[in-house]
Amino acid sequence: MKLVIIGGTGLIGSKVVSRLREQGHEAVAAAPNTGVNTLTGAGLADALHGASVVVDVSNSPSFEEKAVMDFFTTSTRNLLTHAAAAGVKHYVALSVVGTEALTESPYMRAKNAQEALIKAGGIPYTIVHATQFFEFVARIADEATVGTTVRLPPVLIQPMAADDVAGAVASAAVGAPVNGTVDVAGPQQFRFDDLIRQGLVARNDARQVIADPHARYFGAELGERSLVPAGDARFGEIRFKDWLARS
Ligand SMILES: NC(=O)c1ccc[n+]([C@@H]2O[C@H](COP(=O)([O-])OP(=O)(O)OC[C@H]3O[C@@H](n4cnc5c(N)ncnc54)[C@H](OP(=O)(O)O)[C@@H]3O)[C@@H](O)[C@H]2O)c1
Protein backbone atom coordinates (compact mmCIF):
# COMPACT_ATOMS: atom_id res chain seq x y z
CA MET A 1 0.00 0.00 0.00
CA LYS A 2 1.30 3.48 -0.88
CA LEU A 3 0.97 6.14 1.84
CA VAL A 4 2.12 9.74 1.42
CA ILE A 5 3.28 11.44 4.62
CA ILE A 6 2.96 15.21 4.33
CA GLY A 7 5.54 16.63 6.73
CA GLY A 8 7.32 13.28 6.49
CA THR A 9 10.69 14.89 7.30
CA GLY A 10 9.47 16.42 10.61
CA LEU A 11 9.60 15.14 14.19
CA ILE A 12 6.48 12.96 13.95
CA GLY A 13 6.55 12.50 10.17
CA SER A 14 10.00 10.91 10.01
CA LYS A 15 9.00 8.41 12.72
CA VAL A 16 5.73 7.59 10.94
CA VAL A 17 7.60 6.98 7.66
CA SER A 18 10.07 4.61 9.40
CA ARG A 19 7.32 2.65 11.12
CA LEU A 20 5.29 2.21 7.93
CA ARG A 21 8.36 1.12 5.96
CA GLU A 22 9.23 -1.40 8.70
CA GLN A 23 5.73 -2.82 8.19
CA GLY A 24 6.48 -3.25 4.48
CA HIS A 25 4.45 -0.33 3.15
CA GLU A 26 5.53 2.16 0.50
CA ALA A 27 5.73 5.33 2.61
CA VAL A 28 6.67 8.52 0.77
CA ALA A 29 8.00 11.46 2.81
CA ALA A 30 6.60 14.67 1.29
CA ALA A 31 7.90 18.09 2.35
CA PRO A 32 9.44 21.16 0.70
CA ASN A 33 12.90 19.60 0.79
CA THR A 34 11.63 16.51 -1.06
CA GLY A 35 9.97 18.78 -3.68
CA VAL A 36 6.43 18.83 -2.28
CA ASN A 37 4.88 22.07 -1.06
CA THR A 38 1.27 22.00 0.12
CA LEU A 39 1.02 25.81 0.10
CA THR A 40 1.83 26.15 -3.59
CA GLY A 41 0.68 22.67 -4.66
CA ALA A 42 4.12 21.98 -6.16
CA GLY A 43 4.90 18.27 -6.46
CA LEU A 44 1.57 17.15 -4.94
CA ALA A 45 0.07 15.49 -8.01
CA ASP A 46 3.21 13.39 -8.61
CA ALA A 47 3.63 12.45 -4.96
CA LEU A 48 -0.01 11.38 -4.58
CA HIS A 49 -0.18 9.36 -7.80
CA GLY A 50 -1.27 5.82 -6.89
CA ALA A 51 -1.55 6.60 -3.15
CA SER A 52 -4.27 4.99 -1.02
CA VAL A 53 -3.66 7.07 2.09
CA VAL A 54 -2.53 10.62 2.87
CA VAL A 55 -1.18 11.36 6.34
CA ASP A 56 -0.84 15.07 7.15
CA VAL A 57 1.64 15.67 9.98
CA SER A 58 2.97 18.95 8.60
CA ASN A 59 3.23 22.05 10.76
CA SER A 60 3.30 25.77 10.14
CA PRO A 61 6.78 27.32 10.26
CA SER A 62 5.18 30.36 11.97
CA PHE A 63 2.63 30.36 14.82
CA GLU A 64 1.74 34.04 14.14
CA GLU A 65 -2.06 34.40 13.88
CA LYS A 66 -2.47 35.10 10.15
CA ALA A 67 0.45 32.94 9.04
CA VAL A 68 -0.73 29.85 10.92
CA MET A 69 -4.34 30.22 9.72
CA ASP A 70 -3.14 30.66 6.12
CA PHE A 71 -0.86 27.64 6.45
CA PHE A 72 -3.45 25.15 7.70
CA THR A 73 -6.33 26.34 5.49
CA THR A 74 -4.39 26.75 2.22
CA SER A 75 -2.38 23.55 2.63
CA THR A 76 -5.45 21.50 3.62
CA ARG A 77 -7.51 22.80 0.67
CA ASN A 78 -4.70 21.97 -1.75
CA LEU A 79 -4.16 18.57 -0.21
CA LEU A 80 -7.86 17.66 -0.27
CA THR A 81 -8.17 18.69 -3.92
CA HIS A 82 -5.13 16.70 -5.03
CA ALA A 83 -5.99 13.72 -2.83
CA ALA A 84 -9.51 13.52 -4.30
CA ALA A 85 -8.08 13.74 -7.85
CA ALA A 86 -5.64 10.92 -7.06
CA GLY A 87 -8.43 8.70 -5.68
CA VAL A 88 -7.06 8.64 -2.12
CA LYS A 89 -9.26 6.45 0.12
CA HIS A 90 -8.23 7.64 3.59
CA TYR A 91 -7.13 11.09 4.81
CA VAL A 92 -5.37 11.05 8.19
CA ALA A 93 -4.34 14.22 10.05
CA LEU A 94 -2.69 14.93 13.38
CA SER A 95 -4.22 17.57 15.64
CA VAL A 96 -4.29 18.44 19.33
CA VAL A 97 -6.47 17.18 22.23
CA GLY A 98 -8.88 19.92 23.33
CA THR A 99 -8.46 22.01 20.17
CA GLU A 100 -12.19 22.66 19.78
CA ALA A 101 -12.47 24.36 23.20
CA LEU A 102 -9.27 26.44 23.07
CA THR A 103 -10.58 29.03 20.61
CA GLU A 104 -8.71 31.91 22.27
CA SER A 105 -5.51 30.47 20.81
CA PRO A 106 -4.72 31.49 17.21
CA TYR A 107 -2.86 28.19 16.71
CA MET A 108 -5.82 26.12 17.93
CA ARG A 109 -8.22 28.17 15.77
CA ALA A 110 -6.09 27.26 12.76
CA LYS A 111 -6.11 23.57 13.74
CA ASN A 112 -9.92 23.76 14.11
CA ALA A 113 -10.16 25.27 10.64
CA GLN A 114 -7.97 22.44 9.29
CA GLU A 115 -10.25 19.86 10.95
CA ALA A 116 -13.44 21.51 9.62
CA LEU A 117 -12.08 21.39 6.06
CA ILE A 118 -11.19 17.70 6.41
CA LYS A 119 -14.64 16.84 7.82
CA ALA A 120 -16.34 18.63 4.91
CA GLY A 121 -13.82 17.42 2.34
CA GLY A 122 -15.59 14.30 1.15
CA ILE A 123 -12.70 11.85 1.65
CA PRO A 124 -13.07 9.24 4.44
CA TYR A 125 -10.86 10.50 7.26
CA THR A 126 -9.35 9.94 10.68
CA ILE A 127 -8.21 12.85 12.84
CA VAL A 128 -5.75 11.83 15.57
CA HIS A 129 -5.85 14.19 18.55
CA ALA A 130 -2.60 13.93 20.54
CA THR A 131 -1.64 15.61 23.79
CA GLN A 132 1.52 17.73 24.09
CA PHE A 133 4.75 15.97 23.07
CA PHE A 134 7.57 15.54 25.62
CA GLU A 135 9.76 17.04 22.87
CA PHE A 136 7.64 20.22 23.05
CA VAL A 137 8.35 20.96 26.74
CA ALA A 138 11.24 23.35 25.98
CA ARG A 139 9.19 25.28 23.39
CA ILE A 140 6.30 25.60 25.89
CA ALA A 141 8.72 26.93 28.52
CA ASP A 142 10.19 29.45 26.06
CA GLU A 143 6.74 30.68 25.06
CA ALA A 144 5.75 31.16 28.72
CA THR A 145 8.98 32.88 29.80
CA VAL A 146 9.30 36.51 30.85
CA GLY A 147 12.84 37.32 31.98
CA THR A 148 13.93 34.24 33.92
CA THR A 149 10.44 33.26 35.04
CA VAL A 150 8.09 30.75 33.40
CA ARG A 151 4.40 31.16 34.27
CA LEU A 152 1.98 28.32 33.63
CA PRO A 153 -1.42 27.32 35.02
CA PRO A 154 -1.33 24.31 37.40
CA VAL A 155 -3.92 22.39 35.33
CA LEU A 156 -3.80 18.72 34.36
CA ILE A 157 -1.71 17.64 31.37
CA GLN A 158 -1.08 14.13 30.04
CA PRO A 159 1.89 14.53 27.65
CA MET A 160 3.36 11.83 25.45
CA ALA A 161 6.54 10.88 23.61
CA ALA A 162 6.79 11.58 19.87
CA ASP A 163 7.46 7.85 19.40
CA ASP A 164 4.06 7.02 20.91
CA VAL A 165 2.38 9.73 18.80
CA ALA A 166 3.96 8.26 15.66
CA GLY A 167 2.77 4.78 16.66
CA ALA A 168 -0.80 6.03 16.99
CA VAL A 169 -0.68 7.91 13.67
CA ALA A 170 0.84 4.94 11.81
CA SER A 171 -1.78 2.62 13.23
CA ALA A 172 -4.58 5.02 12.19
CA ALA A 173 -3.05 5.21 8.69
CA VAL A 174 -3.17 1.45 8.10
CA GLY A 175 -6.59 1.09 9.75
CA ALA A 176 -10.03 1.89 8.37
CA PRO A 177 -11.19 5.54 8.38
CA VAL A 178 -13.24 6.32 11.52
CA ASN A 179 -14.72 9.54 10.05
CA GLY A 180 -14.15 11.10 13.43
CA THR A 181 -11.48 11.75 16.03
CA VAL A 182 -9.25 9.37 17.97
CA ASP A 183 -7.65 10.75 21.16
CA VAL A 184 -4.19 9.61 22.28
CA ALA A 185 -2.35 10.61 25.45
CA GLY A 186 0.62 9.66 27.60
CA PRO A 187 0.54 7.11 30.43
CA GLN A 188 0.62 9.66 33.29
CA GLN A 189 -1.00 12.93 34.29
CA PHE A 190 0.98 15.87 35.67
CA ARG A 191 0.30 19.40 36.82
CA PHE A 192 1.37 21.60 33.91
CA ASP A 193 3.78 23.76 35.96
CA ASP A 194 5.32 20.66 37.55
CA LEU A 195 5.89 18.94 34.20
CA ILE A 196 7.71 21.96 32.78
CA ARG A 197 9.71 22.36 36.02
CA GLN A 198 10.87 18.71 35.80
CA GLY A 199 11.79 19.20 32.15
CA LEU A 200 13.84 22.33 32.84
CA VAL A 201 15.62 20.82 35.87
CA ALA A 202 16.63 17.81 33.77
CA ARG A 203 18.28 20.18 31.27
CA ASN A 204 20.00 22.19 34.04
CA ASP A 205 17.89 25.16 33.00
CA ALA A 206 17.78 27.61 35.92
CA ARG A 207 14.50 29.31 34.98
CA GLN A 208 11.95 29.41 37.79
CA VAL A 209 8.50 27.98 37.05
CA ILE A 210 5.57 29.69 38.79
CA ALA A 211 2.04 28.26 39.00
CA ASP A 212 -0.27 31.04 37.78
CA PRO A 213 -3.91 30.01 37.14
CA HIS A 214 -4.38 32.86 34.64
CA ALA A 215 -1.17 32.36 32.66
CA ARG A 216 -2.03 31.66 29.04
CA TYR A 217 -0.97 28.73 26.87
CA PHE A 218 -0.35 29.97 23.32
CA GLY A 219 -3.01 32.65 23.94
CA ALA A 220 -5.63 30.51 25.68
CA GLU A 221 -6.66 30.47 29.33
CA LEU A 222 -6.93 26.83 30.38
CA GLY A 223 -9.44 24.96 32.51
CA GLU A 224 -8.49 22.08 34.81
CA ARG A 225 -9.09 19.48 32.05
CA SER A 226 -8.51 21.48 28.83
CA LEU A 227 -5.39 19.49 27.91
CA VAL A 228 -6.53 15.95 28.79
CA PRO A 229 -8.82 13.71 26.73
CA ALA A 230 -12.50 14.19 27.60
CA GLY A 231 -13.70 10.71 26.64
CA ASP A 232 -12.20 7.47 25.36
CA ALA A 233 -8.51 7.62 24.59
CA ARG A 234 -5.61 5.32 23.76
CA PHE A 235 -2.51 5.62 25.88
CA GLY A 236 1.18 5.55 24.98
CA GLU A 237 3.65 3.57 27.06
CA ILE A 238 6.69 5.82 27.35
CA ARG A 239 6.95 7.56 30.74
CA PHE A 240 8.37 11.08 31.05
CA LYS A 241 11.11 10.08 33.53
CA ASP A 242 12.34 7.28 31.23
CA TRP A 243 12.24 9.60 28.22
CA LEU A 244 14.20 12.28 30.12
CA ALA A 245 16.81 9.71 31.15
CA ARG A 246 17.20 8.64 27.50
CA SER A 247 17.21 12.11 25.95
N1 LIG B 1 3.87 19.84 19.54
C1 LIG B 1 2.89 19.23 20.17
O1 LIG B 1 2.94 19.05 21.40
C2 LIG B 1 1.71 18.72 19.38
C3 LIG B 1 0.69 18.06 20.05
C4 LIG B 1 -0.34 17.51 19.30
C5 LIG B 1 -0.35 17.63 17.91
N2 LIG B 1 0.67 18.31 17.27
C6 LIG B 1 0.65 18.38 15.79
O2 LIG B 1 1.68 17.57 15.28
C7 LIG B 1 1.93 17.95 13.92
C8 LIG B 1 3.39 17.70 13.55
O3 LIG B 1 4.23 18.38 14.44
P1 LIG B 1 5.82 18.17 14.38
O4 LIG B 1 6.34 18.70 15.68
O5 LIG B 1 6.17 16.78 13.94
O6 LIG B 1 6.22 19.21 13.23
P2 LIG B 1 7.70 19.55 12.69
O7 LIG B 1 8.75 18.69 13.29
O8 LIG B 1 7.84 21.04 12.79
O9 LIG B 1 7.60 19.14 11.13
C9 LIG B 1 6.81 19.88 10.26
C10 LIG B 1 6.86 19.22 8.90
O10 LIG B 1 6.00 19.97 8.03
C11 LIG B 1 6.72 20.20 6.82
N3 LIG B 1 6.23 21.39 6.13
C12 LIG B 1 6.35 22.70 6.47
N4 LIG B 1 5.82 23.47 5.51
C13 LIG B 1 5.36 22.64 4.54
C14 LIG B 1 4.74 22.85 3.28
N5 LIG B 1 4.46 24.09 2.83
N6 LIG B 1 4.42 21.77 2.53
C15 LIG B 1 4.69 20.51 2.96
N7 LIG B 1 5.27 20.25 4.15
C16 LIG B 1 5.61 21.30 4.92
C17 LIG B 1 8.17 20.38 7.28
O11 LIG B 1 9.05 20.26 6.18
P3 LIG B 1 10.45 21.07 6.17
O12 LIG B 1 11.24 20.56 7.32
O13 LIG B 1 11.02 20.75 4.83
O14 LIG B 1 10.08 22.51 6.33
C18 LIG B 1 8.27 19.21 8.26
O15 LIG B 1 8.45 18.01 7.57
C19 LIG B 1 1.43 19.41 13.81
O16 LIG B 1 0.35 19.46 12.89
C20 LIG B 1 0.92 19.75 15.20
O17 LIG B 1 -0.26 20.52 15.18
C21 LIG B 1 1.68 18.84 17.99
Give a verbal description of the structure.
- With 247 residues, this protein is an alpha/beta fold.
- Helix content is 37%, strand content 20%.
- The chain has helices at 11-22, 44-48, 65-85, 106-120, 137-143, 162-174, 192-202, 240-246, and strands spanning 2-6, 26-30, 53-56, 90-96, 125-130, 145-146, 149-152, 156-157, 180-185, 190-191, 208-211, 234-235.
- The strands form three sheets. It has a seven-stranded parallel β-sheet, sandwiched between helices. It has a three-stranded mixed β-sheet with strand order 6-7-11.
- Strand 3 (53-56), helix 3 (65-85) and strand 4 form a beta-alpha-beta unit.
- The longest helix is centred in the N-terminal third of the chain and has 21 residues, at 65-85.
- The model has no long low-confidence stretch (mean pLDDT 97).
- NADP nicotinamide-adenine-dinucleotide phosphate (NAP) binds at residues 6-7, 9-13, 31-33, 36-39, 57-59, 61, 75, 94-96, 111, 130, 132-133, 136.
Give keywords.
binds NADP nicotinamide-adenine-dinucleotide phosphate, globular, single chain, 247 residues, alpha/beta, 20% strand, 8 helices
Q: In summary, what is this structure?
A:
Helices cover 37% and strands 20% of the residues.
Specify Rg, calculated over alpha carbons.
Answer: 18 Å
Bound molecules: NADP nicotinamide-adenine-dinucleotide phosphate
> What strand line-up does the widest sheet have?
2-1-3-4-5-9-12
* Percent range of helical residues: 25-40%
Strand content: 15-25%
Distance between the amino and carboxyl termini: 33 Å
Q: Compute the number of helices.
A: 8
Order of helices and strands: EHEHEHEHEHEEEHEEHEEH
Structural class: alpha/beta
User: How confident is the prediction overall: mean pLDDT?
Assistant: 97
